[in-house]
Automatic annotation (TrEMBL):
Cross-referenced SUPFAM superfamilies: FlgN-like (SSF140566)
Annotated region described as Disordered, given as residue ranges: 142-165
Keywords, comma-separated and alphabetical: Bacterial flagellum biogenesis, Cell projection, Cilium, Flagellum
Keyword ATP-binding among record annotations: no
The protein's name in its UniProt record: Flagellar protein FlgN
Pfam families: FlgN
InterPro entries listed in its UniProt record: FlgN-like (IPR007809), FlgN-like_sf (IPR036679)
Statement: the UniProt record of this protein carries the keyword NAD: no
UniProt superkingdom: Bacteria
Amino acid sequence: MSITTILSTIDNLEKLHKSLLRLAIDKTALIKSGDMAGLDQMLKDEQAHLAAIVQMDNARQRAVALYLVDQGRSVLAEPTVSDLLEAASDADKQRLEEARDRLLHAIHELKWQNDLNQKLTYQSLQFVNLSLDMVRPRPESVNYSKTEISGNKASKAQTTFDTNA
C-alpha cells in the first residue's frame, strides 16, 4: 500500500467535509428564514454526506492498516494518521501532516458552523415556547380546597402512620 492512496483518501475526506460545511452554511440561512421544508431536505442531504464520510473513513483505516502491515508494524483496531506518521519516511511525513492539518481545519470549521446552527435552533425553540406561553391562557383553579370551604386556614395535619405500633 502506498502513501499516495492514503493521501488521496484523506483529500477525499477533506472534500466531503467541505461539502458538508457548505450544507451547514446553507442550513443556517434556512434556520433564519424558518423554511421547514428546506430544513427537512437539508437533513436528508446531510445524512447522505455522513454516510459517504463514514465509508471513506473506513477506506482510510483499511489503507493505513495495510501500509502499517507492509512496514512490519503492529496494527491497532482503528489505525490513525498519527500511527501512520510514526511509520512514514520524512518526505511522506510532511505530505501527510499537511493533508491531516487541512482535514482538521475543515472539521473544526464544520464543528463551529454546527454549533452556531444548534444555538440558532435552540433560540428559535425558546421563541416559539415564549410565544405559546403568551398566547395560551393560564388555567385558573376551578376547584376549591377543603380549607377554603370550611373557612379554617390552619388545619391539623393528620398522619396515617401509627408510631405506637
